[in-house]
Amino acid sequence: MKKIFLYSLMFSVVLSSCRKDDPVATYQEPADIATQNYYDDEAAKKFLTDNYLDSQGNIKAFDPNDPSDDNNTPLSAMNPQTNPATGVIYIVRNNAQPNPGTVIGNTDVIRIMNKGLGYIAMSVDGVIKYSSPNAFVNTIQGTGVPQVDPQYYYVKNAVMAASGKPRSYYEMAGFQEGIRKFLAFNIPDSDNYNLQGVIIVPSRAAFGRNEHYPYLNVSWRNRSFVFNFQVYKTTARTPDQE
After folding, report:
1. How far apart are CA 80 and CA 91, in angstroms?
2. Is 8 contained in some domain?
3. CATH code of the domain containing 94
């Protein structure tokens, strides 16, 4: 009996210890959209402070236990530009832009090397920050070649006609806004990447609480997005590509 009691006690201690590492906060959708917008904006500010760009332009988080990254410039000090009307933020990385470059048209076919994560902005232990990252797109660590004509930038008319859904069901307005702040390169898909910037899209400029296409069979409701990218090429859309 003593052994049984001892084992039970040990199991309880282990279980209690594990629970300490479990998330202490779970997301609850605010009834007031203004509250979600506030969370999105505050979480974006913290993200800008907590992250920097490596030598190829990849977003990296500062490691509080590793002093070797202390001299890197946080995103917040890289002249981030914010549209007060939409909340979209973009950062143009110095010395990583095409010269000359090509303007990205509203309906262009783009070839983009891209990593995009969707986050829930929420209060965790009294701190508003991004939580629950979910991959939206990643050609950098995936195929290693640019994505061609992504639907979240431009959806073809035939797709809309077949589904009966509007353009906003597929496209992300905040990503469109941000990417047009940049110029496209004109380089082959085989070239190594040198990412040219960052775009942060709050949920209200992404899919918000609206019905949307379930990319990767995931609901992106209330999610903010962070994109880290390089546009390899942009070309005018031809009639057969509409």
Report:
1. 5
2. no
3. 3.10.50.40
Paired tokens of 40: 């999105």
Residues 6 or more apart whose Cβ sits within 8 Å of residue 80: 48, 89, 90, 91, 198
pLDDT single digits (tens) 76-134: 999 999 999 999 999 999 999 999 999 999 999 999 999 999 999 999 989 999 999 99
Strands 109-124 and 223-235: antiparallel
Which tens digit of pLDDT belongs to each residue from 189-205? 999 999 999 999 999 99
User: What residues contact residue 81 under an 8 Å CB cut-off, 6+ apart?
Assistant: 89, 90, 91, 92, 181
pLDDT at 25: 64
Range of the domain at 111: 30-241
Are 148 and 232 within 8 A, CB to CB? no
Q: Can the peptide bond before residue 100 be classed as cis, meaning omega within 30 degrees of 0?
A: yes
**Per-residue b or e along 181-197, where b marks 16 or more CB atoms closer than 10 Å to that residue's CB:** ebbbbebeeeeebbbbb
Number of other CB atoms surrounding residue 107 within 10 Å:
10
Has residue 3 been placed in a domain?
no
Note the pLDDT of residue 17.
Answer: 34
Q: What is the pLDDT of residue 18?
A: 36
Residue 21 in any domain: the answer is: no
Mean per-residue pLDDT over the chain, rounded: 90
| Residue 230 β-bridge partners | 113
Q: How many domains does the chain have?
A: 1
Task: Copy the structure tokens of residue 204.
Answer: 């209200």
- Domain membership of residue 13 (yes or no) is no
